[in-house]
Amino acid sequence: MSSTETPDAPTPIDDLCKRLEIEALDRDLFLADPGSGEGRLFGGLVAAQSVMAAMATVNVDERGEAPASSLLHSLHAYFLRPGRYGVPIRFVVDRIRDGRSFTTRRVVAHQAGEAIFNMAASFCRPEDGMSHQRAMPEVESPEGKPEWMTLRHRSLGLPEPQEFDNPIEVRVLDATEFEDDSPRDPVRSVWIRTRGKLPDDPDLHTATLVYASDRTLLGTAIKGAQGMPGKDFMGASLDHSVWLHHPIRFDDWLLYSSVSPIAHNARGLIFGSLYTADGVQLASVAQEALIRNRRKTNA
After folding, report:
1. From 122, 214, 273, 281, active-site residue
2. What's the pTM?
3. Which residues contact 179 (CB under 8 A, 6 or more apart)?
4. Which of 86, 90, 99, 181 is the most buried (most CB within 10 A)?
5. What three-state secondary structure class fits 55?
6. What is the DSSP string of 275-286?
7. In 3-state terms, what secondary structure has residue 54?
8. pLDDT 10s per residue in the chain (299 long)?
9. Which residue of the set 50, 237, 258, 273 is catalytic?
């Protein structure tokens, strides 16, 4: 770099990659910094950090084959307690099984002496077999579509953000869902991409997709009720599962299509599918979320 050149300013995805750096304290003990922030710690971050901890314990085998860490195929997790920003998170990994085809890990995330997150993750080696998928929904392109956070701030009566610090950009296809609080069919499709370029590291691409998979699902369930997220309802993820069908690359727009078939007893169930722009289904997601009516305050 010449004396007249200046380094590029860090992007929001650079900040996420920093938070996904896992420090090894021991063979199966890791530490991560959630960074600073407001409110409750985003659950997708804890899930992504847990994935990084699990992948760090899945190594190249004695034959020198590619690391199975790039072949995470499923995770099933529970959010046990709300996490906090600014407090380090300790990850304890249990090596449940190392098999020829499948490897299993259990990860428990602790913060301030309490377990906040529990995850089982399974890895597999590729093999030949049947292959099929349903077609991706036919939707419009993301170009020119409004940003999720802009519409959300507008619906809540907040000033529209002039810049965005979230590492995942979300473009909304149906902007009318933010215009009133009438019940709607709880089905949604949005386009997502990273706000910045990821390093060429399969582990980071996989963990970032897991991070992004926790976005927008709760709002899909709330579409079926009369109200708006953040104004009439408050919610939190209870559990989260992700199945990865192909090696993950998060270099461009992905379509995130979701549906909430049922909500009852303050819990909403949501299923999601993530597709590349050319229609390949990269991943499937399932989540149950706690959704409660926000208490009314007297004026």
Report:
1. 214
2. 0.90
3. 155
4. 90
5. helix
6. EETTS-EEEEEE
7. helix
8. 444 444 567 889 999 999 999 999 999 999 999 999 888 999 999 999 999 999 999 964 544 444 444 489 999 999 999 999 999 999 999 999 998 889 999 999 999 999 999 999 999 988 888 899 999 999 999 999 999 888 888 877 788 776 778 999 999 998 888 876 677 889 999 999 999 999 999 999 999 999 999 999 998 998 877 655 556 677 889 999 999 999 999 999 999 999 999 999 999 999 999 999 999 999 999 999 998 877 665 44
9. 237
Helix and strand numbers, DSSP H then E, in the chain: 5, 12
- Spatial neighbors of 187 by CB under 8 A, at least 6 apart, are 220, 223, 257, 258, 259, 260
Q: In whole angstroms, what separates CA 259 from the centre of its chain?
A: 16
Phi, psi of 199 (to 5 degrees): -60, 160
DSSP result, 63-104 = T-PPPGGGGEEEEEEEE-S--BTTS-EEEEEEEEEE-SSEEE
User: Is 237 a catalytic site residue?
Assistant: yes
3-class DSSP state for residue 229? Answer: strand
Catalytic residue, from 49, 69, 260, 287: name it.
287
- Could you give the CA distance from residue 213 to residue 211 in angstroms, rounded to a whole number? 6
Bridge partners (DSSP) of residue 168 are 194
